[in-house]
Amino acid sequence: xxxxxxxxxxxxxxxxxxxxxxxxxxxxxxxxxxxxxxxxxxxxxxxxxxxxxxxxxxxxxxxxxxxxxxxxxxxxxxxxxxxxxxxxxxxxxxxxxxxxxxxxxxxxxxxxxxxxxxxxxxxxxxxxxxxxxxxxxxxxxxxxxxxxxxxxxxxxxxxxxxxxxxxxxxxxxxxxxxxxxxxxxxxxxxxxxxxxxxxxxxxxxxxxxxxxxxxxxxxxxxxxxxxxxxxxxxxxxxxxxxxxxxxxxxxxxxxxxxxxxxxxxxxxxxxxxxxxxxxxxxxxxxxxxxxxxxxxxxxxxxxxxxxxxxxxxxxxxxxxxxxxxxxxxxxxxxxxxxxxxxxxxxxxxxxxxxxxxxxxxxxxxxxxxxxxxxxxxxxxxxxxxxxxxxxxxxxxxxxxxxxxxxxxxxxxxxxxxxxxxxxxxxxxxxxxxxxxxxxxxxxxxxxxxxxxxxxxxxxxxxxxxxxxxxxxxxxxxxxxxxxxxxxxxxxxxxxxxxxxxxxxxxxxxxxxxxxxxxxxxxxxxxxxxxxxxxxxxxxxxxxxxxxxxxxxxxxxxxxxxxxxxxxxxxxxxxxxxxxxxxxxxxxxxxxxxxxxxx
Length: 598
Known about the structure:
- The protein is of the alpha/beta class.
- The chain has 22 helices and 16 strands.
- The protein has helices spanning 11-17, 19-23, 29-40, 57-73, 76-87, 105-108, 112-122, 125-138, 150-159, 165-181, 185-192, 196-209, 218-236, 262-276, 283-299, 317-330, 378-386, 400-403, 428-439, 460-463, 549-552, 563-576; strands at residues 4-5, 300-302, 308-310, 343-347, 354-356, 362-364, 390-394, 408-412, 443-447, 468-475, 487-490, 501-504, 508-513, 517-523, 526-534, 537-542.
- Helix 4 (57-73) packs antiparallel against helix 5 and helix 9 packs parallel to helix 12.
């Protein structure tokens, strides 16, 4: 036994693992494993004592696993661990003094995705400079098996305006696919490059790369086709008795020789993620769950006092990281069915503020799915995607036609002239078009703000269509860091929230209602939330855009505030309001839709 830890999991995981594990059920196993990894390698230090910092593929798979757990739990220790581990290698100016990037890009490239996360959250040019050095280093490489870097290359190209890279990414995957399918090259490459591990890393990278590509790109369609072809091979080669795979992906023998859990865990991750994001049919969840049961039975044994020993998968960062990634997807399979086929579209018209990024180009910001820094909605978008929905952005005027591809439409803090001199004010035509869409079954969420940050007067022409009026008052004014002045308690007994939450809002307006709107939650005597049924549709109104990253990522507010957990509940509720006939999996999109994030 390498390591003892309390085993836990969601109900699904407990059922997969058996009754003994169910008795010790506490937290999701992904969380338990992440905590164990941080204890085994404290401070994100993987080198031997006294040795210079180094980087391996396995270490960064572990960081990807911790990132996945952080996005699900917003536990700041996961993020800080990633940050500290990366900072050991990156100078304050963004240089990588211990890594020879141009000479060894294939060995250091996996550092790129953690760098992209840290830049996205902090907007610190330190991480942009380091990521750029890695990106440029790849230009000097000519690797046959270059797919391990493609998720980073795609993320960098998307974030920093290099769409010309997308066709090249697809071409690289197609080339690798040809090599995998060629004979006798197939067997030679599989053995030389690590066999099962090579194929597992390839398909996991494929699943990570696809959601970064724009929905209307030819590259995305090509990669989805490849993923389906490879998933069919993986499922076909799954051993009927063990649920796992043999080392070279040839005809599976009765006894499977698997030296560690990394490869099957990456297969599990890729299959379940592909289903969750709508790229693969649901039957691949069955294959993923079968494999996960086998991983648990092979690598998890009951210890004393209700604890469980995990062996093999704790031998190194690669194995642990792959296991964490697999666990996050398996734990979410049931949730991923809630919004499957639905498109959650955020507004980019009424709130169309822009800022300059690290490249000097202007980009949209404030309440956008792809924005990972403080004012973005990336974590709330992650919650919707965990429920199986797509997240897109509408930068055009919300006509009935432009709203047709969406089942849920979210408008957060419409611009006033102080925030955007080119503000698009709502008018009677907008109100008519949006109301027509809601009446047909659309779900509208209006997240207002106080008058100093948002337009209430013009936008009330839309809200009043549904019996909702935003009042030009100021409540919950917070001075400095006196967080208690913004405490908003939700008892969990209402129609939307079924669990209590201590939420945080700051400088908000209030709501008045008349039929068909009704109050949903009040703070003291003020209405903070309202709901209206309108035709086949539903309208939700709130006095603050309270799920932006600053209030949900666990890095600023005290731990008692759980805006993210409340956001997850609201996301589920909004998706549950979509009429069944509306959630048809419409893959169209409005004008200017953004890529769906992973």
